[in-house]
Amino acid sequence: LLEQQRGELADQRENERAIRAERLENLRFVRVASAARSADRPLNFQGLDLSGTNLTGVDLSGADLTSVDLSGAQLYRSDLSNARLFGANLTGAAIIESDFSGANLGVADLTGAALFGSRFDQATLVGADFTNVTLDGADLSTADMVATDLTGVRWDPANPPIWPDSLRPPVNVQ
């Protein structure tokens, strides 16, 4: 029995190493492709696992990130303007001073994410899950937030988000 448990533990560790290696390779691919982008060929990263990665300053404008796993990712001053993040997983992501202008985050899951000072000009957030999101200084003033779940959102009262005129702001959970 002990030998079987050791074997299972070794298999589990090997599987975890393989997953980490795949994420690092995905991150390298995204960084290289975004740096060498061509105007006539949009970036396609559909379905990649980028969970827990650091995408600080990466230009992903116009990229197709449909169903990408960005859970726990760090997006500091990243450009995701006009990106397609439909159905993306951004749970627990740290999104700071990033640009999502014109991006489509329809039905994306941002549960527990921190969106500090990020811009969502003309972004589509229809059906997105913002449960327990922190929105300090986020600009949502022109975002389409129809059916966006805002349960438990919070922000620093000294740095509130800017809400669309058409939306009745939720209560700050603090």
Average predicted local confidence, pLDDT: 92
Strand residue content: 5-15%
Largest sheet: 3 strands, parallel
Number of separate helices: 1
Helical/strand content category:
mainly alpha
SSE run:
HEEE
Give the terminus-to-terminus CA distance: 50 Å
Strand order of the largest sheet: 1-2-3
Helical percent range? 10-25%
Describe it for me?
With 174 residues, this protein is mainly alpha-helical. Helix content is 20%, strand content 5%. The chain contains one helix and three strands. The longest helix is centred in the N-terminal third of the chain and has 34 residues, at 2-35. The termini are far apart.
Identify the notable features of this structure and list them briefly:
20% helix; mainly alpha; single chain; 1 helix; 174 residues
Describe the structure in brief.
The chain has 174 residues and is mainly α.
Please specify the SSE layout and strand pairing.
Elements: H1 2-35, E1 74-76, E2 94-96, E3 114-116
Parallel strand pairs: 1-2, 2-3
